[in-house]
């Protein structure tokens, strides 16, 4: 059973993906943005949140790395911004 790291960033996931694709010489993956929503409360996301990354994944040497932005009202702390998906 593979274990997939899920990395969460405070609004800079796009920059992290650019870095990883350059370092590992991979193509930029397809990116899903939050878009207009609806958000958890059923309302559209504010315009400034709509371009944040909801999900992206990059396969590096057979390992799936997954990426997402945290919402600004719920930022992640360095060292607590990774989960493992089974």
TrEMBL record:
Source taxon at top rank: Bacteria
InterPro entries in the record: Glyas_Bleomycin-R_OHBP_Dase (IPR029068)
SUPFAM superfamilies attached to this UniProt entry: Glyoxalase/Bleomycin resistance protein/Dihydroxybiphenyl dioxygenase
Signal peptide: none
UniProt xrefs under Gene3D superfamilies: 2,3-Dihydroxybiphenyl 1,2-Dioxygenase, domain 1
Protein name from the UniProt record: VOC family protein
Organism the protein comes from: Salmonella enteritidis PT4 (strain P125109)
Source organism phylogeny: Bacteria, Pseudomonadati, Pseudomonadota, Gammaproteobacteria, Enterobacterales
